[in-house]
Amino acid sequence: MLSDYPQTLTYLYENLPMFQRVGATAYKADLTNTYALCEALGNPQNKFKSIHVAGTNGKGSTSHMLASVLQSAGYKTGLFTSPHLKEFTERIRVNGKEATPEFVVDFVNRIKPEIERIKPSFFEITVSMAFDYFASQQVDIAVIEVGLGGRLDSTNVITPLVSIITNISFDHKDILGDTLEKIAGEKAGIIKKGVPVIISQRQADVQHVFVNKALQHEVPLYFASDEYSVVSADNLVEIKRNNELYLNKIDLSLKGSYQTLNVPGVIKSVELLRTLGFIIPDDALKTGLEQTVARTGLKGRWQQLGERPLVICDTGHNAGGVQELVSQINQQKFDNLFMVWGMVKDKEPDEVLKLLPGEATYYFCQASIPRAMDARVLQAAAQRFGLTGEVVPDVNQAIARAKAAAGERDFIFIGGSTFVVAEIENL
Q1: Domain at 382, CATH number
Q2: Is 285 in the same domain as 216?
Q3: Is 307 found in the same domain as 292?
Q4: What angle do CA 300, 305, 309 make, to 5 degrees?
Q5: Which residues contact 352 (CB under 8 A, 6 or more apart)?
Q6: In the 3-class helix/strand/coil scheme, how is 62-125 assigned residue by residue?
Q7: 152-207: pLDDT as tens digits
Q8: Are residues 36 and 138 in the same domain?
């Protein structure tokens, strides 16, 4: 019997393989364990309505925006996301409030005999815990973010009202495949018979994968970017539907310019939910988009940590995400650029490093997890692309070094890995 929350977390972290810490060895390419755990819990995944969100980049932001909109419309809304940045309970929320430590302890004690018997991964336990919590809380609807891939992801035991697939780019190639087509095929694995699917962003090289899968399952498929467009104007955005103004002067809570790729999928989802009987007025949609951070607690998406110098962090870490980040960095006005940068060692660093700004001063660091790439190895790899700077392994010491070097008109960016952002003090 586990007596308290710290002891329970230690049990989960030390006895179960955790992808967040160790990488691919923790990935279970099979849904058997999740089904077994859910069966032992009375199949909670069938006791609440849900929306399923997959994709390479944008699935977390999309999930949080949707949850915020549903909360704004008055629905008791569950939200399951991963990984967490600071605290395990961030993964499981109802109306923005994290699951309680007491629930986590109770759940693990209840299911401990099954854990010993089934020997599931950390993520499989977390998914079944979230489903149990949402069922016990009697949520009106839950937004469920896929962990990795889609087809074999533990979350794929649900039958949602709507499925959403965001951007497709290269990530986890060792697990999901070495072509965009193969990766899209894994993401398309969440498409199920009877469930309409929304593709946030039409991408010419993978669109056929989704079209074919939707035809196979005889479900309607919508490319949200064909219908909705989002244009930035004076730090606000306007949303057009079929080139007609739909919503104007929205101050998006999530500030990254790349969010304009995610918003169409959110709005199309709201449109489909309305056809299913959900009452979501336009003012609730607007409020949800403008108060996402406040309502859901999302952190690490183009988040401002300071000004004079401007300090921004972002969890974008693969080639597609970093390309968008660099584009936004280039839109900022500053004298000098400082990059506090760390990566994990199971990524291909060259695909990302070749995208980074060459004129910046770099502080190469590493998160305190086994997956972290040694900062010296990262520095050596970066030098091949003309990126220069010093090695300061500790994330917060690297930030302090950058702040000491920067002037009031300079810009400090912190990122390269979710786990670098997670270690920022006072995030």
Answers
A1: 3.90.190.20
A2: yes
A3: no
A4: 135
A5: 317, 318, 319, 322, 343, 416
A6: HHHHHHHHHHHCCCCEEEECCCCCCCHHHHEEECCEECCHHHHHHHHHHHHHHHHHHCCCHHHH
A7: 889 999 999 999 999 887 655 555 656 888 889 889 999 999 999 999 999 899 99
A8: yes
Task: Measure the CA–CA gap between 390 and 379, rounded to whole angstroms.
Answer: 8
| CA distance linking residue 24 with residue 175, whole number of Å | 7
The total of structural domains in the chain comes to: 2
pLDDT of residue 407: 96
Query: 3-state secondary structure string, 66-81?
Result: HHHHHHHCCCCEEEEC
Q: How far apart are CA 186 and CA 425, in angstroms?
A: 36
Kindly state whether residues 223 and 290 are assigned to the same domain. yes
User: 162: Cβ–Cβ under 8 A, 6 or more apart, which residues?
Assistant: 51, 52, 195, 196, 197, 198, 269, 272, 273
pLDDT digits (tens, 9 = 90+) for 63-84: 999 999 999 999 999 999 998 9
The pLDDT of residue 25: 45
Q: What is the pLDDT of residue 235?
A: 72
Structure tokens that stand for 374 in this block: 């040694």
Is residue 190 domain-resident? Answer: yes
Instruction: Read off the pLDDT of each residue in 265-283 and give the average, rounded to a whole number.
Output: 97
Mapped onto helix, strand or coil, the DSSP state of residue 424 is coil
Q: Examine the fold and report which residue of 296, 313, 340 is the final residue of a domain before the chain moves on.
A: 296
Q: Which residues contact 62 (CB under 8 A, 6 or more apart)?
A: 53, 55, 164, 166, 200, 262, 265, 266
Model pTM greater than 0.90? yes
Q: What is the pLDDT of residue 16?
A: 66
The structure tokens listed for 7 are 């002891």
Q: What is the pLDDT of residue 234?
A: 64
Amino acid sitting at position 288: G
pLDDT at position 144? 98
Q: Which residues contact 21 (CB under 8 A, 6 or more apart)?
A: 13, 369, 370, 371
Predicted pLDDT of residue 172: 53
The pLDDT, as a whole number, for residue 290 is 96
| 188 in Cβ contact with 164 (< 8 Å) | no
Lowest mean pLDDT segment, chosen from 173-187, 240-254, 299-313, 412-426:
173-187
Is 183 strand, coil or helix? helix
Kindly state whether residues 336 and 257 are assigned to the same domain. no
Last residue of a domain, one of 296, 326, 342: 296
Rounded Cα distance between 266 and 386, Å, is 39
Expressed as residue numbers, the domain containing 40 is 5-296
Check whether 23 has a pLDDT greater than 50: no
Helix (H) or strand (E) holding 20: helix 19-22
In a domain, 427, yes or no: no
